[in-house]
Amino acid sequence: MNLFRNIQDLRQYLKQERLKAALEGKVLETGFVPTMGYLHEGHASLLREARRNNDLVVLSIFVNPIQFGPNEDFERYPRDEAKDLQLAEQEGVDAVFLPSVGEMYPAQTLTKITVSQQLTGGLCGASRPGHFDGVTTVVSKLFNIVEPERAYFGQKDAQQVAVITQMVKDLNMPVQIVPCPIRREEDGLALSSRNVYLAPAEREAALVLSRQLLHVQELINEGGTLTAGEAKETLLHAFTAEPLAEVDYVEVVRFPGLQPLGDSERIAQDGEVLVAVAVKFGSTRLIDNVILSKKGV
Ligand code: AMP
């Protein structure tokens, strides 16, 4: 497994690998998995999907400062490079890109990528202003550095998938965005690097998210006629009954357009509907979601 901290070195390596393949009359296809590290089974599932469908797998680990707000957890975001490299090795990653902040953002950086508020203004964008500009800017930079054929993103960050898919389409970026399902602990908690912040009682309380989302999903799959308003009410009721939970948002929107459903609109009448929640447990903000469709999930 090859490790790179400089953009130039990674580019050189990729160029050589592509040239080697070309000399053998082959096209080397690259699958890319961008992450912020502190890797878990959710990240591993993306790496496995990339491994299955590409000749070369590139993983990036970069805690991107510009996607964190001033009062967020950039400084204390968990990091464990040695453990991450072990997991990457196990998953058969070919190259890991571990740039410093200075490497990604030299002193004079005057450009950013912004996707319209129509996609970035609601859900997580409402409580984290500027967050998606940080995400789209760093992902664009990484795409330009790695030039992958495919890039893998978790549906756990459903809005991120919608925003990046739109960006790639609008800017004609030659990369296919591959969304991958949410990976969960056995008890249902969506895997997240931030779960490590949770005190035992908060972790127990946090199970309300997956339990209630599953409940809503079951109501729909059983052919129920749940409206968006009823779904939100069910979730809000359960979350507010949990003393350790502080609701940030509970939303029902179309996917991937992210237009909110009216309260009286039935879910799963046509197309896909995203039921997304963000809830704080102590100082830890967790997100979770389900995507529902007429055909079931
Ligand atoms: P992060 O390191 O949190 O920025 O996440 C890197 C990538 O892993 C993103 O595409 C996330 O959506 C994805 N990811 C994070 N948690 C999960 C999970 N539980 N299941 C599937 N993908 C995930």
TrEMBL record:
Beta-alanine binds at Q67. The keyword ATP-binding applies. It catalyses: (R)-pantoate + beta-alanine + ATP = (R)-pantothenate + AMP + diphosphate + H(+). Keywords: ATP-binding, Cytoplasm, Ligase, Nucleotide-binding, Pantothenate biosynthesis. It is found in: Cytoplasm. The reaction proceeds by a bi uni uni bi ping pong mechanism. This is Pantothenate synthetase. It comes from Paenibacillus apis. The gene is panC.
